[in-house]
Write a structure and sequence with these properties.
single chain, alpha/beta, 9-stranded mixed β-sheet, 5-stranded parallel β-sheet, 12 helices, about 35% helix
């Protein structure tokens, strides 16, 4: 029987809400049955009707939803949080304290203090908490992780991760009708990080996920390029990993002409690998002394991790929805005690928020190299 899910946020005008719903329901493991999709009653009802949610399970706010659903014998078992950042903590904390599992869009919270507080709530609740760092759900990203972990490349020496977009090359946030830009440009809703909190955390997370190494220190140049903008829109960060590897992280939303250009390269002693989100079903390995190899999703020669999250035969492209769905399927496995070890958790959420706050502060203060944790 499918796990019963409620969603908070994601109503008309949302990009990520429908993606979460499609991903959650793709494998039949989870079913959306309740929610608070918008603060606007009409939009709330509109989303519910479009997604087949019964009118009596559409609520005016998350507190009312949690109280009602936990009192029902057929109430929800997990809550998906797809609101702007400033609401993540309150919704997640209330759901966990109500005895519900939580899966949230990234970043975990508005700021690091909230993320650390949420970590305590997760631990006390005994419930599962997951973050949709979507790109970790791609089969070839998981293959890359296995290749590095096996030591095929030798010791990791260099990591280069770039996430470039161009959609905020103009001040779209000044148009109140552009919901996606307006909340991202508002520090009260987005937090201290703009671009770095929106897509920089994805780049940071995938670099740590694939290499298996934690970033220990960083040197950041976090900039606001478009005049009058309140938050950063372009970031360049040098990284030093545990174990000695050096890294470069680029995140930009003013790279005019760039679409959704996430690319990761990891270089070891013997060779390097490269994965690109715009060609996600391919992983390229270039050897120091040998021919290059191109690996394809769906192939029998891939490792168990990649094969487990592949739905189609090789040559049949899988993409963003399927990667998102892999996170949801893994989360369902975790709830049901079947595994789910690769679901990004609150620990990743705390690290993501630490990255954002330390990079923004270090750049502002022209501090040079700083510790990710704030320790000397």
């Amino acid at each position: 029987m499918a796990l019963r899910m409620a969603m908070v946020g994601g109503g008309p005008g949302s990009f990520i809400g429908p993606v979460h719903r499609m991903a959650a329901e793709l494998d039949g493991r989870i079913r959306l049955v309740a929610g608070v999709f918008s603060r606007d009653p009409a939009k709330n009802a509109q989303a519910a009707a479009a997604w087949g949610v019964a009118p009596d399970r559409v609520y005016p706010d998350h507190h009312a939803m949690i109280a009602a659903e936990t009192a029902r014998p057929d109430g929800v078992q997990l809550v998906s949080v797809v609101t702007p950042n400033h609401l993540h903590f309150d919704v997640s904390a209330a759901a966990l304290k109500g005895g519900l599992h939580v899966i949230s869009d990234k970043p975990a919270t508005l700021n690091l203090a909230e993320a650390e507080a949420l970590a305590g709530i997760v631990a006390a609740s005994g419930k599962h908490y997951g973050l949709t760092y979507t790109y970790t759900g791609y089969p070839m990203v998981r293959e890359a992780r296995e290749i590095v972990a096996r030591g095929d490349l030798g010791a990791v020496r260099k990591v280069v991760v770039e996430y470039s977009q161009g959609w905020l090359s103009k001040p779209l946030e000044l148009d109140e009708a552009n919901k996606q830009a307006s909340w991202r440009g508002d520090p009260k809703q987005s937090g201290v990080g703009g671009c770095i909190g929106d897509i920089g955390v994805h780049a940071f997370n995938i670099a740590e996920f694939v290499t298996g190494h934690r970033v220990e220190r960083l040197c950041a140049d976090v900039a606001t390029v478009v005049p009058g903008r309140s938050l950063d829109d372009d970031c360049n960060v040098l990284l030093r990993f545990a174990g000695g590897a050096r890294g470069v992280l680029i995140a930009s939303q003013i790279s005019a002409g760039a679409r959704n250009g996430l690319t990761l390269s990891v270089y070891g002693e013997k060779g390097g690998l490269t994965w690109s989100h715009e060609d996600p079903n391919v992983l390229t390995i270039d050897w120091l002394d040998g021919p290059s190899h191109v690996l394809h999703a769906g192939s029998g020669y891939l490792g168990a991790g990649a094969r487990a999250v592949t739905r189609l035969p090789t040559g049949h492209p899988e993409g963003f929805i399927e990667a998102f769905a892999n996170i949801y399927r893994d989360f369902a496995d975790a709830i049901e005690g079947r595994g789910g070890a690769l679901v990004p958790d609150i620990g990743e959420g705390v690290r993501g928020m630490a990255f954002v706050e330390r990079a923004v502060a270090a750049s502002r203060d022209d501090a040079g190299w700083v510790s990710l944790t704030g320790e000397a």
